[in-house]
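Feature request, filed as a ticket because there's no other form

It would be nice if the structure record came with a short human-readable summary line next to the tokens. Right now we just get the raw output. Example of a typical job, pasted below so the devs can see what we mean:
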Amino acid sequence: MGNLYIALLHFPMRSREGGIVATALTSINVPDIARTARTYGAARYYVVTPLANQRRIAERLRAFWMEEDELPNRREAIGLVAVREELEDCYREVEEAEGQPPLVWGTSARSDLPYPRLSWDEARALLRERSVLLLFGTGNGMADELLAACDALLPPVRGRGYNYLSVRAAVAIILDRLKGEEA
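Raw output as currently delivered:
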């Protein structure tokens, strides 16, 4: 069975105006996504930002929760967090840990993208066979060049007309669709 690794990326992201930016870390994403990652058996949760001050904030958040003796379950989850400067670092670490390159899957709320998409059934089947590095974007989504570099994209999460979930909510829904009760 393949292992699932997730990465929350902060660059290159799209701004509201369509430009390429590095987004700021949202402090609640670090522990909340870690808890979701632990719940669904992810092997590692990468927080990736090129901004040194944002990496320091993420490391301080991680250290705070690791020292919290009264919350051992949260400490167990936060232990999955690894803060990295570049996505390539994550890719290399997964390849070293797994002995082969991972599949790289992107996520996007946009349904008009011209990149290959997997169905949920296809994604679950592939995840049983291969390790996957699953990318989540911040801001207004990942830049097109990042999405184009993915092996495939997962289907967008769709609600009832309104489509503006927090990344924390999207991670939880997507991990449940991929691994909920070992789908």
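Something like this underneath would help us a lot:
The mean pLDDT is 92.
Strands lie at 4-9, 13-14, 20-21, 44-48, 81-84, 103-106, 132-136, 152-153.
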